[in-house]
Amino acid sequence: MERRPVSLLEWAYQEIRQMLFSGRLAPGEKIVVGQLAEKLSISPTPVKEALNRLVAEGLLDAMPRRGFQVKHLSAKEVHDILDCRLMMEVFAARKAVENFKRHPEIRKEMLADLKELENVEFHDYVEATRLEQSYHSSFIRLTENQHLMNLYNILFGVGFSFYVYASENHPMERHSEAQSEHRQMLEALDRGDVEGLETALRSHLERTINLYETFSSAFAAETLHN
After folding, report:
1. What is the distance of C-alpha 154 from the center of its chain?
2. C-alpha torsion 169→202→184→186, nearest 10
3. Is Kinase a UniProt keyword of this protein (predicted)?
4. CA dist 163 → 40, 92, 197 (Å)
């Protein structure tokens, strides 16, 4: 039997969060507390508390008298989230370069992420998105600012299930291009090149914004016709 954390609330929270991040709960999907509790084999109370916690984090919407719904991000919301990522990561670039030499362990992790991204199964969108998050969060970690790191994790978490869902429904046309951009970022760090890192981050994230905006608009149009 799987070992559960100290509280059922924490266990339920982690399980549901993973269901969101893996795409098992898709954007727009309705969640009935009783049904989900039965699926998790626990009582409804910790499930409802966990769902309310995920509402507070922006991952779900609470529907009055109708339970919960997985948040579906509009094209504008996707743009806003990625805009925030762009601002955070470009802001982090200078500090990241300044602190890079003091954190050889982060460089090692970034190299490992790059290698795994290159070898990840073409349709393993959950793992690809997780690795993307791990790689990009390295720039924030290098600022040595835990408050910024906490904000970044919440921000990426809000978009995570949408990124996975979009990737599943939009072939990874940019995979090789994205990998080249990722390598340019690490090379800029190695050179101590702040402008080069800012340019690489900006280019990568602006392309990503365009990709997800295209999918989000198509998804909205498809939803209207269904």
Report:
1. 9
2. -100
3. no
4. 25, 22, 23
Amino acid residing at 128: A
Cβ-based neighbour number of residue 122 at 10 Å? 9
Where are the strands (E) in the chain, listed by range? 30-31, 60-63, 67-70
Q: CA-CA distance, 209 to 198, in Å (whole number)?
A: 16
- Of 58, 57, 68, the C-alpha closest to 25 is 68
**Mean pLDDT score of the chain:** 85
Helix, strand and coil percent figures for the chain, each rounded to 5: 75, 5, 20
Domains of the chain: 8-70 (1.10.10.10), 75-225 (1.20.120.530)
Encoded tokens for 224: 């209207």
Q: What pLDDT digit, counting tens, does each position of 61-107 carry?
A: 998 888 899 988 777 887 888 889 999 999 999 999 999 999 999 99
d(Cα 169, Cα 161) in Å, to the nearest integer? Answer: 12
**What confidence tens digit (pLDDT) does each residue in 109-152 have?**
999 999 999 888 767 777 888 898 899 999 999 999 999 999 99
pTM confidence score: 0.76
pLDDT at residue 174 in the model? 56
